[in-house]
Amino acid sequence: MQQTEHHEDPQQVELLRVCRIGKAQGLKGEVNVMAFTDEPERRFAPGAVLYSKDGSHEFTVLGSRSFKNRWIVLFEGVNNRDKSEALRGVELYGPADDPEEMAEEDAWYPKDLIGLRVELAEDNGLGLPVGQLVGTVVDVIDGPAQSLLKLRRKTKATETQATASPATEAAESKETSETPTPVETTALVPFVDQLVPDIDLSEGYLTLDPPGGLIPWL
C-alpha cells in the first residue's frame, strides 16, 4: 500500500477524526468506512487527503460512493482485497477548517461551542437584563431540522421545590444539611441565528434571545 509521508508538523495542524475504516468491499481495494464527519461529500471527494492519527501518513482518495447509510472509499495504492483488509480499524483524520473562515460563514465545530457560557442578548424579547447568565453549553445535538444546543444550569435544591407547609419544612430541615444540594436543570435551544445572534469564542460566550417558555428557569 502506498503511504505518503506527511512533512508538516502534526502538532501545528489541528486534525479532526473523519472516519474509521471497516471491512473490505469487493476485490479491488475499496473499503467501507464509518463516517464521523457531516461533510462526507467533501472529505471523500476524489483528490481529498486524509491522515493517520499522528499526521505522519497521507491517504489520498481516488473515488468514493455512498450506499445506504455508509460510504465506500478507494484510496491510492490500495488496489486489492489484502491491502484493504489490512486497513480495517484504522481511523483517518482531516485538517480542521480555518476558524476565521468558519466564523465568517457562521459555521462552528461542536467542540468550539461546548463549554461556552450563555448570556442573554441585548434587546432580548424577554425584556431581561443584557448579559444575564443563562447557563453553559454542555452538548451539541444533531436534530432533524437543525442542531440543538443543550444548556445546563446548576440551581439550589430549594429553588426547584414547591412551597411546603411550615411543619413539613421543619421536618425536612432536620434531614438536610445547611448547604442546599445543587440541582442541574437543562434546556434544548435550536441553534439558529434568530435565537443565537452572537458567538464570541475568544471571550468564551454566546448570546441568546429566547422566546418565552423555551428556558424553564427564565
Automatic annotation (TrEMBL):
One biological process term in Gene Ontology: ribosomal small subunit biogenesis
Region described as Disordered: 153-186
Keyword Cell cycle among record annotations: no
Keyword terms, alphabetized: Chaperone, Cytoplasm, Ribosome biogenesis, rRNA processing
Molecular-function GO terms, alphabetical: ribosome binding
Similarity comment: family membership: Belongs to the RimM family.
Subcellular localization(s) per the UniProt record: Cytoplasm
Gene from which this protein is expressed: rimM
Official protein name in the record: Ribosome maturation factor RimM
Species: Bifidobacterium aemilianum
Complex formation: Binds ribosomal protein uS19.
